[in-house]
Amino acid sequence: MNNLLIAGSQGTPLSVIEKSEYNDWLAKQDQASQNWLKNINYTGDGLAIFPNEAGELTQALFVVSDASHYFSCGDLINQLPSGNYHLNADEKNHPAICFAWLIGAYQFDRYLSKKNEKTLPILSINNQQTVDAAINYVQATSLVRDLVNTPAADMMPEDLAHAAQDLVDEFGGNVKHTIGDELLEQNYPTIHAVGRASVHAPRLIDLTWGDTNHPKVTLVGKGVCFDSGGLDVKPAAGMRNMKKDMGGSAHVLGLARLIMATKLPINLRVLIPAVENAVSGNALRPGDVVVTRKGISVEIDNTDAEGRLVLCDALAEAENDNPDLIIDFATLTGAMRVALGVELPGFFSTSDEVAAGITLAGSKNTDPVWRMPLYTPYRDLLKSTVADMTNCATVPFGGAITAALYLQDFVNKDTDWVHFDVMAFNIRQQSGRPLGGEAFGVRAVFDYLEQRFK
Length: 454
Description:
The chain is of the alpha/beta class and 454 residues long.
């Protein structure tokens, strides 16, 4: 897929302009081109291709509302005839166009007996740096999508471990695993409690990369490889897409790939508590009390609020290194989807400066994110009569906030911490965004980190 975008200046001219620029562009064209567009009833929207007298393609035009939008040209690679094209567009829009061009070629066809054999066109631009950046973004996005799209039978904790190892094999670093009863021996009781009912042993994946003298950034990703709900079992409709409940781990692996590929000068750590929330005779029960790694006792009000349980031990471990920044990603609550819908990820942060930086970065690369409040009075909704706290609130309101407040108890008060609550899944098809797994906030966070630490 990467060979579909290259540095160079050869190929059929491909002009990408905005609708507001179309009339000016048209006025500069020769009479034959203007007549051609008139005769094919082209209205200045979408794709138009221009043949010569021999029927050969001489140029192509693509008109969009906003050429700076990173998905405006997401279907272009599939609309153009095969061949080589050279981009003519405002240089400031090149990053967006190149990303959209390449991500438009994404397909998840691992399980298809008949692959799409269409030969896709190749786009060139005169900037190797822009090409490299687009390829890095697309590879990270594709990794997130592939991991989320993979059925749970092939994406259990051991498979997530292989994905982490693949990054280390490609970019260096180290990865270690704490598996099964080792989690109890090394004091990760909530990760073990959630995952012990599955035949796929729970584990904590711990990836490290980079110079230890560089600023320390730790990523934590929820890795619930399938969520039945546990003994508080989900209904069929709620369980149907729960292969995506490891979407948080996919996000941090995609973000890690970006960091490693660009050699960002940070000391990176990635922690993934990987489990299957299954049902069996030894499954975690409602009413059980688990003493977490941090020593906080938690009463299990609902076994389907398992993501925060595995995350809390990982967050407590993340604090051992006194990192400059902790960022976690999780498909944590339906409440966030109710609040913001499925395409706008919400996040919480203990740092106004970090939150503003990530929001600004996302606004520049079409990766929008929305800060939500850590409204501390809701902390009372997590009170328990038999333990220090419960794992979910006693009322159904403000569920994304109470989940974030639960996690905040496992982060030191002086730590800059960001918590993303993401969908990790497209429920409708849009330009460059097929149905299925999706990366939300990854490019926003990476651009923030790059601006802060490069």
